[in-house]
Amino acid sequence: MGCFFSKKSKRKSKEEQTSTTLESTAGSNSVPLGSSSDEAPKQYSWDTREKVDPKDYMLNGLKDTTVGRLPGTLNGQQLVIQDCENCNIFVFDHSATITVDDCINCRIFLGPVKGSVFFRDCKDVRCVVACQQFRTRDCKKMEVFLCCATQPIIESSTGMRFGCFQFYYPELAFHFKDAGLSIFNNNWSNVHDFTPVSGENNWSLLAETAAVLDSVPPPDPESEFKSVRVSADASRSIVPLTRGARRKDSEESCLFVFFAGDYTTANARKLIDKMIEKCFVLIQTKEVPMRPEDVKRVFQNDTADLLEWSTKGPVTALELNGDGVVDACRTIANEVFNGSKVFVSEDKSTSSRDVDNFFNFADMQMGL
Amino acid sequence: MGLLSILRKLKSSPDQEVRILLLGLDNGGKTTLLKQLASEDISHITPTQGFNIKSVQSQGFKLNVWDIGGQRKIRPYWRNYFENTDVLIYVIDSADRKRFEETGQELAELLDEEKLNGVPVLIFANKQDLLTAAPASEIAEGLNLHTIRDRVWQIQSCSALTGEGIQEGMNWVCKSVNAKKK
């Protein structure tokens, strides 16, 4: 084999020998894969699956049009969006991963993405995105209404503005489930910039009044997406609208935790609706499993019931903010959720400690 | 030879430690691979800002695996981790055709690094679960892997998400360490 004549064969004899023998085995095994190796090459699932046309998973080189995928047509596969200009792109389905490259002046909706969403070399893009990971590189001027299970990151990107995901269409809750995303784990405002510039801000938070549909209008009634009944009302949004890292109105915050049960999600939504009616603000939410030792550490006293409840599944926690929020939460807990498995901060003098303890734990747990 | 060192030799030898460096572009799946190796949950992986390290046991080796963030901005820091590397694992997103050239360049630069001279390299053609993934043979050709003459190397298709192909790759890692340390 060629490797016997390779330039490094003058090296120390011991090293040379092992290197040569191994190289010949590795080499024969490598290009093309498995050819001329002694044993039959192992068959992987990707070797035996039906061949597809990659073009079916691409939106490529489009201009001035409305395109995308209707519910059930992408079905957890990947999508590549590239070289589109002045397009409205709607992906009303869940997917494995999506890259968006070299797009200019587009409006994009991406339903729940199980893995990462990666924008590269895009400019003037406004989008609504739900995903496990959100990444950008070399992008300019984007508005992103985001639900992201981990910390969003940007690199060499400027003029990036972020808001909280707010959207509804009838299948969206199922698509979140299919993508393995929790509607309560949203770190939209906690952005990490790999390339900060001193004295400048590459990213900022959108005004709280920014309306999703002003940035990403609903599908044109002439398009194939007219049948999807969309809404971007905060009250109908599948993902709860959170204030995130924006300045809090009040010093008083309350921790409200639902332990796993049949109606946990519905109960959490009901609580949010009732509190918003009373003009309190939802700051952040988390859904996270807790081990007994976590429960003891985070809730400190009064843990006997909680210990047992926490074994049934992940807990759903909310931070609510406003003057008098602790009393209001305790009243609702008694009147509406009496009999449900909940924890509510007891006193406004200790409630901010409850909030810190819980969310520090949850962020650590989730690698944030 | 002192008594102490004889006694030490008689004692059953502890697992041999192997230092593995996991590199590749951002969004390639390095951390997912690391967590798969350690049988950890992979549903909540945050983009790596610094590095992650895990020790896993395999075939009598203690593999210390260093997973270093891959953003363009932080690639210059990769060299801080080169020292004493036994095996380099280079992870490629087989579905990211836009960056095949970029990942090839980064790999070529790594192979030129003096501190990684002769270090065996395993290339994982990752994300084969995605329908548009390029096959490992195509990637090997595109990267001109057959021109590598100064070290042993292997390319292995895998899906860090499902775990398929990873064991075969790690078997090769252990084999090449064995050969090197004999």
Structural summary, described in words:
The complex is a heterodimer of chains A (368) and B (182). In chain A, 23% of the residues lie in helices and 27% in strands. Chain A has nine helices and 16 strands. Chain A has helices spanning 13-28, 45-48, 172-178, 212-215, 264-277, 292-299, 304-309, 325-335, 351-365; strands spanning 58-60, 66-69, 79-82, 88-91, 98-101, 104-120, 123-137, 140-148, 153-155, 158-164, 192-193, 203-205, 253-258, 281-288, 315-321, 342-344. The model of chain A is unreliable at 1-38 (pLDDT under 50). Chain B is built from five helices and six strands; from the N terminus they run αβαβββαβαβα. Chain B has helices spanning 3-10, 30-37, 100-112, 136-142, 166-181; strands spanning 16-23, 51-58, 61-68, 87-93, 121-126, 153-157. The two termini of chain B are 22 Å apart. The mean pLDDT of chain B is 92. At the A-B interface, α1, β6 and β7 of A face α4, β6 and α5 of B.
Distance between the termini of chain A: 50 Å
Radius of gyration of chain A: 25 Å
Strand content of chain B: 15-25%
Q: Looking at the chains present, what oligomeric state does this protein adopt?
A: heterodimer
Number of separate helices of chain A: 9
What is the distance, rounded to the nearest whole angstrom, between the alpha carbons of the first and last residues of chain B?
A: 22 Å
Biggest pleated sheet of chain A: 12 strands, parallel
In terms of per-residue confidence, which ranges of chain B show pLDDT below 50 for 5 or more consecutive residues? none
Protein structure class of chain A: alpha/beta
Strand order of the largest sheet of chain B: 2-3-1-4-5-6
Mean pLDDT of chain A: 89
Q: For the report, how would you describe the main beta sheet of chain B?
A: 6 strands, mixed
The helix content of chain B, as a percent range, equals 25-40%
